[in-house]
């Protein structure tokens, strides 16, 4: 059966201390790291790219790295991200003409495939590619910034996917924390991204555990 996995987003942490913040999250029980890559085109914000991910990988050898590629041309960064030591390449299907080709290239480069959709994108758009993927990400905010309000109306997509694909890894991302994890768990999400709620928590380990316990039960 499916495992509940918690992948904190370091987007709203002190990025001048990226390694320390990441290691702290792992020490506090994070199952994987969700690394938000933005190019200023697909979303109106900029973060970091493969050179930074590679430096982080040099310091953190064994953690599972997921990159959430909020970029206009996901195909362009597959091989640099694979070289940087990324384990899962999650990309938005909206700007992509040939999703199957991108999936194939990601697999050939040795990474897992994640397919992401924005709140305005119908779930049927991603369904046709599920057999080629390892995970589907249902965004619960408009991508671009941390700290936004959770969109509960997106749970209908999670529910639909869980009903039809009992073994699919379904991730939620955006505004997820102790106040909203119940909705996500009920709908059937099993991979949980949480940014500000975890980064800003008084007790990071307790918050991560609470998120996992809510999904697991
Ligand atoms: C939004 C990013 C999310 C976000 C999560 O564009 O993809 O990963 O940073 O942060 P919170 O949990 O604060 O919404
Ligand atoms: Zn993200």
From TrEMBL:
A divalent metal cation binds at residues 34, 36, 68, 173. It catalyses: D-ribulose 5-phosphate = D-xylulose 5-phosphate. GO terms for molecular function: D-ribulose-phosphate 3-epimerase activity; metal ion binding. CDD domains: RPE (cd00429). Keywords: Carbohydrate metabolism, Cobalt, Isomerase, Manganese, Metal-binding, Zinc. The active site is at 36 (proton acceptor), 173 (proton donor). Its EC number is 5.1.3.1. GO terms for biological process: carbohydrate metabolic process; pentose-phosphate shunt. Its cofactor is Fe(2+); a divalent metal cation; Zn(2+); Mn(2+). It is an enzyme of class 5 (isomerase). The keyword Aminoacyl-tRNA synthetase does not apply. The keyword Metal-binding applies. Pathway: Carbohydrate degradation; pentose phosphate pathway; D-xylulose 5-phosphate from D-ribulose 5-phosphate (non-oxidative stage): step 1/1. Binds 1 divalent metal cation per subunit. It comes from the Eukaryota. PROSITE patterns: RIBUL_P_3_EPIMER_1, RIBUL_P_3_EPIMER_2. Substrate binds at residues 9, 68, 144-147, 175, 195-196. Belongs to the ribulose-phosphate 3-epimerase family. NCBIfam families: PRK05581.1-4, rpe. HAMAP family: RPE. This is Ribulose-phosphate 3-epimerase.
